[in-house]
Structure formats: C-alpha cells, structure tokens
Amino acid sequence: MHKYFKERRIGKLVLLSLSVVIIALGFWFSGTNAYKFMKGYWLFKTGEPKTEVAFADKPVKTADKTQSSPKTSLYTERPQKGEMIGNLSIPKLSADLPIYHGTDEDELEKGVGHFAGSVLPGEKDNSVLSGHRDTVFRKLGEVGKGDLLVVSTGAGEFTYKVRKVRIVDADDRTVIVPKPRATLTVTTCYPFDFIGDAPERYILVADLIEAIEQE
C-alpha cells in the first residue's frame, strides 16, 4: 500500500512538472519570433491577412483599430473597377504611367494596376500597385532603395521614398499585409528576363514622405 501511494505521488509530481513546462513554453512562444513565424506561415498558406479594406462609407478595419471612413478619407468617391485613378511617376526612369483600379489582365494591359483590396494612394496603410515586367515595369529593376515614386490622383500628389527592395516567391501574399503608416508597395514578376511564368516577384516598399492634397 505504501508503494502504491508513493507511485501516485511521483506521478502527480511528473504531471505538475510537465504542466509548468508547457505553460512556460506557451509564454515563450507568444513573446518571441516563433509566434511571428507561425503567423506569417499561416498567412502565406491561406492568403488571408487579418484586415478588411472597404470601398464604401462604412468603418475601415485595420490591424489594430477601427476608424471612420467618410470623415478621414482623402477620396470623396471610391473608384470603379477598370477606372483610371491617376498616374505613377518614376523619376529614376523618367517614366509616367497610368494607374487603373484593379489588377486583372484588362487593367494590366493598359498600365499599372491598383490592387482593389488595398487602400488608395495617399491613404494610411498599404497601397499596392502591380504591373507587367515586359511592359510598364520592364526597367523597374533599376529602381532601388532611396529612389522616389510619385503618385498623382484626384486627391493630390503623393511622394514616396523606397525603403526596401524584396524578392519573394510568386505566391507570397505577405506583400499585401497592412502597414502602420502610409506605404506604397510596387510589384512585378521576377527575374525580368525570365521566359514563361516567372517564379518570383520584385517588390519595392516605399514610405510616404510628402503629400500635397487637392483643395
């Protein structure tokens, strides 16, 4: 009988020790890069960033707060798919390119496409532009950190400075995640001289440094 109770006591101590270890690992996981890695992996696999951008007069949900769209938006009307919304100027390339709302082939054949799930240029958060590497963005590889990107729309003129250049897999959706400040993300296929469907994407991440709003 004494041996039975002793074994039970040892078993309880083992379970208690395992519980403490599991709890400690939980705190470590939530407070380190391991959590960020798993969150990024989930986003990569599902393509579902935890954000919602609305193009109507209703609250806009960002990563950590909700703001009212009608009073804070730079734009009185949201664009329709296929509508030209402005121009992208790249001083480094002496290029001036039309921007269309949407990133289907119809828009990309005419110029630069604005990803409809992102905010409009000049607004806080991440505005995403895409274009073909063999048409509008065939020289985009010459643009890098420190270069300027200027977007002109009906709301004003917005100047961005490239902060980072990334090369990612073609199905990497992290380029569309929300940003804490006004950001312009420009993407195209990579490598530029690849024949067929390119396996990667060339990404420019630029921060808004000047905004001249239309009065």
From TrEMBL:
GO molecular function: hydrolase activity
Protein name from the UniProt record: Class D sortase
Database matches in CDD domains: Sortase_D_1 (cd05828)
Top-level taxonomic group: Bacteria
Stretches that traverse the bilayer: 12-29
Coiled-coil spans in chain: none
Assigned keywords, A-Z: Hydrolase, Membrane, Transmembrane, Transmembrane helix
Pfam families registered for this protein in UniProt: Sortase (PF04203)
InterPro entries per UniProt: Sortase, Sortase_D, Sortase_D_1, Sortase_dom-sf
Signal peptide residue numbers: none
Residues the record marks as active site: 132 (proton donor/acceptor), 189 (acyl-thioester intermediate)
Keyword Kinase: no
